[in-house]
Amino acid sequence: MTDKILTILVTGANGQLGNEFKVLDHNFPFCQFLFVAKEELNIGDISSLKKYFAGHSIDYCINCAAYTAVDKAETEKESAFSVNAGAIETLAKVCHTNNTQLIHVSTDYVFDGTATQPYKETDKTSPIGVYGSSKLKGEELAVQYCPSTIIIRTSWLYSSFKNNFVKTMLRLMKEKESINVVSDQQGCPTYAADLALAIMRIIKSGKSKENPGIYNFSNAGVTNWHAFAVAIKELSNSNCKVNPITTAEYPTAAKRPAYSVLDTAKIAATFPVAVPDWKDSLSKCLDLLK
Question: Which active-site residues does the annotation give?
Answer without folding.
Answer: 131
